[in-house]
Design brief:
Na+/solute_symporter_sf, transmembrane helix, 14 helices, 331 residues, globular, Na+/H+ antiporter like fold, mainly alpha
């Protein structure tokens, strides 16, 4: 039963949205809070860069087929599914929420949960580490480009060089600085994971609070009904199930081992809240992003619950197989 309950961070996200609804920051205070939020995001990506071991990247490059499948799932199959969702009439899925789903579809994979679920299920952990990390690095370039491309295709505007510049300045520059300093500070930062984890969560919560404060001031809860939110949940579930099936059967058709299949399923089906919220803040700077990040926040909890169940099923089958092998060996 515990696996179906929301994790602590999801509860914190819900509380942050409630706080923004009851006590939204606005005016001059919102301007100063926005500056602090941008600084926290820069620190977050600096730490991401400093934590990522170059040895992990080099070791994983050799398994290029697996990484290519995961990257194609993340940045090609997901966006195509996002465009297909656009055929749902506005009366069922309002345009601002659809843009949030489209944005969700072009985000990179998660890092921590992809690795954790791959490990839990008995998959190829080194490959998962490399693929999830590479997904986030490529995402800094591909996400703003794909946002511009898909919005142009859908008639919602075109690509903005200003958005890409904002990504490069606010996210990529701190990340590269962290990578440059990794040989000197990487081990210390990896050893202080618990101490530095508040930066990860705190920066995301700050962006969510600022985003929903702006959205509340502009009347987000009056703009969308409970039916609209329920529609987003259904679409998120359908999207996740579709990608899980594609990665599951696709990895088998391509002849990957069970360990690689597990890595492909978990890395290919995830979308990163940790990268997505800061990216939304940069790409849609000057706009209200509450409706844009709402589908991502819902997808975050859905993917955690679904993948926890799947990882346990994989682990259970592995234990059964090992037990049968042990019994056969002693017979």
């Amino acid at each position: 039963m515990k696996r179906f309950l929301p994790d602590q961070f999801t509860i914190m996200l819900v509380c942050t949205v409630i706080l923004a609804t009851l006590l939204p920051v606005h005016g001059v205070a919102a301007d100063y809070f926005g500056i602090a939020t941008n600084a926290a995001i820069a620190l977050l990506f600096f730490l991401h860069g400093a934590r990522l071991s170059r040895g992990v990247v080099v070791a994983g490059i050799l398994h290029w087929r697996l990484h290519l499948v995961i990257l194609l799932t993340t940045f090609a199959i997901f966006p195509l599914l996002g465009l297909a969702i656009g055929f749902i009439p506005d009366s069922y899925l309002p345009q601002p929420l659809y843009l949030g789903i489209l944005f969700l579809c072009v985000l990179p994979s998660t890092v921590q949960s992809s690795i954790a679920f791959t490990s839990m299920a008995g998959g190829n952990v080194p490959a998962a580490i490399c693929s999830a990390s590479a997904s986030n690095i490529f995402g800094m370039f591909l996400t703003p480009l794909l946002v511009g491309l898909l919005l142009s295709v859908g008639g919602h505007g075109g690509f903005s060089w200003a958005a890409l510049q904002q990504i490069l300045l606010q996210l990529l520059a701190p990340f590269l600085l962290g990578q440059l300093l990794e040989p000197w500070i990487g081990n210390w930062i990896r050893a202080k994971k618990k101490l530095l984890s508040p930066v990860d969560r705190g920066s995301i919560l700050m962006v969510v609070y600022l985003a929903f404060s702006e959205a509340v001031v502009e009347g987000i809860w009056q703009a969308f009904s409970a039916t609209d939110i329920a529609t987003v949940v259904v679409v998120d579930i359908a999207l996740l199930v579709t990608v899980l099936l594609i990665t599951f059967f696709g990895s088998r058709l391509l002849g990957f081992s069970k360990e690689d299949e597990i890595a492909i399923v978990f890395c290919g089906s995830k979308k990163s809240l940790a990268s997505g919220v800061p990216m939304a803040n940069a790409i849609f700077a000057g706009q209200s992003i509450g409706a844009i990040v709402l589908p991502l926040m819902l997808f975050h909890q859905i993917q955690l619950m679904a993948c926890a169940v799947i990882a346990q099923k994989y682990a259970e089958r592995r234990r059964q197989k090992e037990a049968l092998s042990a019994a056969a060996a002693t017979a």
